[in-house]
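in:
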C-alpha cells in the first residue's frame, strides 16, 4: 500500500500515537526529579503521593493537550524569551 503525503506535511513519530518523544522524555525527567526530591526528604507515602500529583499532573496535562499541538519545549522556550525581553513584544503607538 502506498500513501502520498503532501510536501509540507511534517511526519513525526509519537509515543502511543498522541505525545511526541521529546515531551515524553521531558515528563519522565520531571517525574524522576520530583521522585528523587521526595525520596531525599524522607516523607511518608501519603505526602509523597500528594506532592507528586500536585507537581506532575499539571505538567502532564499541559504536555498532552498542549497549546494548539505545539511542542511543550518550544512553548517553554517562547515563554522564557518573552520573559527575558518582554518590551520587544509590546508595541504601543503614540
Amino acid at each position: 500500500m502506498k500513501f502520498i503525503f503532501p510536501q509540507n506535511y511534517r511526519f513525526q513519530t509519537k509515543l502511543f500515537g498522541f505525545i511526541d518523544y521529546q515531551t515524553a522524555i521531558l515528563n519522565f525527567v520531571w517525574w524522576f526529579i520530583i521522585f528523587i526530591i521526595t525520596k531525599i526528604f524522607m516523607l511518608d507515602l501519603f505526602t509523597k503521593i500528594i506532592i507528586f500529583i500536585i507537581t506532575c499532573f499539571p505538567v502532564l496535562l499541559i504536555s498532552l493537550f498542549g497549546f494548539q499541538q505545539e511542542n511543550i519545549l518550544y512553548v517553554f522556550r517562547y515563554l522564557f524569551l518573552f520573559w527575558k525581553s518582554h518590551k520587544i513584544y509590546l508595541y504601543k503607538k503614540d
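note: The longest strand covers residues 14-15.
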